[in-house]
Amino acid sequence: MTASKLSVAVVGPGAVGGTVAAWISLSPLVGDLTLCARSPLDRLVVEAPDGAIIEAAPRVVTDPGQITAPVDWVLVATKAYDVAAAAAWLKPLLGPRTRVAVLQNGVEHVERFTPFLPADRIVPVIVDVPAERTGPGRIQHRRNGTVTAPAGEAGEAFVALFAGSVIEGIVTDDFLTAAWTKLSLNCAGAINALTGEPGGVVRAEGVADLTRELVWECVRVGRAVGADLGDHIPDWVVERAMTSPADSVNSILGDRLAGRPMEWDARNGVIVRLGELHGIETPANGMASTLLAAVGWQLRS
């Protein structure tokens, strides 16, 4: 590790991970950047929301055996279901002061990785960085977006990596509520994945009410685990959907259309599991989870 500048490894340089990596490559705090990828990349080329092109040529490794030294920061940007694959990179990357930022969907960031390292080394991060891969290492960054971490020394150090980036780094004193608020939005995406339709499907008869049912279940379970979620959230989610572009494609729909595995467990299954733990019925999310799992099974067959 360098004393003056930070060494960073990004595990999973897909749409979000690649966008984050390209922007932090410009940070004056970062001296060494490594991408941990399944396949080789020559460089990252990211088209920013304002049309500017951000290019980066970090070191790319495709096998954990190629890691020669630990780093200051590991940024895990894989899908939530890819934890085991991501964890394979951790052993050679971890040193005595390494922090691991988990940039994933859902509310179980820390729980997913505590089998592999102590909880106090993990920084959970809520990501809202709309981006789309257009080719290997090529990404369209559609809106500036945000990354949100818990308040405290580790969270502050993480968001400092984004100084000078168009991605806003935020710290919050109530990460639990922030994560469940994001989950309230994400759980409704099951409707898009199941219908195969973009955002405009919310205007179809009965879909807004079904959206509210999914979100109300999320709100009730979130409150049971300590999140401060208001009664307005189901209507807020519907209003956001109604006022968004009708052709907008969320990530879970994008995954289904591309034949990729879907993050249904991190978005809907967790509501069902924690609902059962707290004695809260979650029939809408239960049905969504069952059907999305069946779709995934069909895609794998």
Structure description:
- The protein has 301 residues and is an alpha/beta fold.
- Helix content is 40%, strand content 20%.
- The termini are far apart.
Q: Give, in spatial order, the strands making up the sheet with the most strands.
A: 5-2-1-6-7-8-11-12
Low-confidence stretches: none
- Count of DSSP strands: 12
| Secondary structure category | alpha/beta
Q: What's the N-to-C terminus distance?
A: 45 Å
What would a concise description of this structure say?
This protein has 301 residues and is α/β, with parallel strands linked by helices. It has 12 helices and 12 strands. Helices cover 40% and strands 20% of the residues.
What key phrases describe this protein's structure?
single chain; 301 residues; alpha/beta; 8-stranded mixed sheet; 4-stranded mixed sheet; 12 helices; 40% helix
Give the helix/strand layout.
Layout: E1 6-11, H1 15-24, E2 30-36, E3 44-47, E4 53-56, E5 59-61, E6 73-76, H2 83-87, H3 90-93, E7 99-103, H4 109-113, E8 122-128, E9 131-135, E10 138-141, E11 146-150, H5 153-160, E12 168-172, H6 175-187, H7 190-195, H8 207-224, H9 233-243, H10 251-257, H11 264-277, H12 283-300
Parallel strand pairs: 1-2, 1-6, 2-5, 3-10, 6-7, 7-8, 11-12
Antiparallel strand pairs: 3-4, 8-11, 9-10
Helix pairs in contact: 6-8, 8-9, 8-11, 11-12
GO molecular function: 2-dehydropantoate 2-reductase activity
Protein name: 2-dehydropantoate 2-reductase
Organism: Brevundimonas goettingensis
